Amino acid sequence: MRTIKSGIMRRYRDEKCYSQAFVANKLGITQSAYQKIETGDVKITLDRLAQIAIILEKKIEDFLDCPEKNVPIKDTVLQHHKQFNFIEKIILQQAKWIEELELKLKTKDDEIENLKRQLAFAKLQQPST
After folding, report:
1. I need a surface site. Which of 3, 83, 96, 126 has the fewest CB within 10 A?
2. 33-69: burial string, b at 16+ Cβ within 10 Å, e else
3. For 65, phi and psi rounded to 5 degrees?
4. What is the Rg, in whole angstroms, of the alpha carbon atoms belonging to the chain?
5. For the segment 6-47, what is each residue's pLDDT rounded down to a tens digit?
6. d(CA 55, CA 15)
7. Is 5 helix (H, G, I), strand (E, B) or coil?
8. Cα(33)–Cα(24) distance, rounded to whole angstroms?
9. Per-residue confidence at 1, pLDDT binned at 50, 70, 90?
10. What is the pLDDT of residue 45?
């Protein structure tokens, strides 16, 4: 799990000489709400972190305490995207196989019904003894 490095937002904000109120205004939130983000009192989404990174002109990974050192977020996201695509292909293939099996089953069911009709017709055609 990734966490935001302690004090990093304030450091980057101070480097830009931005006040908390300035950053909060850019985010469309109150200064006190931003202060809670900056101090880590509230958890933020990756989207919110991306907004802050843009305002402070930093990369998202600059804010994160990554257990996988030197692995950019983009690479991690690409890896997960590839895994998702692979799983999606497997699911689509299985869905195709299910459709094929359902079609074969319906064909067999139709064939059974046809044979039942033929048998019933043949019984009617037999002379009674």
Report:
1. 126
2. ebbebbeeeeebeeeebebbbebbebebbebbebeee
3. -95, 90
4. 32
5. 789 999 999 999 999 999 999 999 999 999 999 989 888 888
6. 12
7. coil
8. 8
9. very low
10. 87
Can you give the pTM of this predicted structure? 0.51
Q: Cα separation of 35 and 117, whole Å?
A: 79
The amino acid at residue 111 is E
Integer angstrom CA distances of residue 48 from 63, 97, 114 = 12, 42, 64
Write the burial class of residue 4 (CB in 10 Å: 0-12 exposed, 13-18 middle, 19+ buried).
Answer: middle
What number of residues does the chain have?
A: 129
Q: Do 22 and 33 contact (CB within 8 A), yes or no?
A: no
What local confidence, expressed as pLDDT, does residue 71 receive? 54
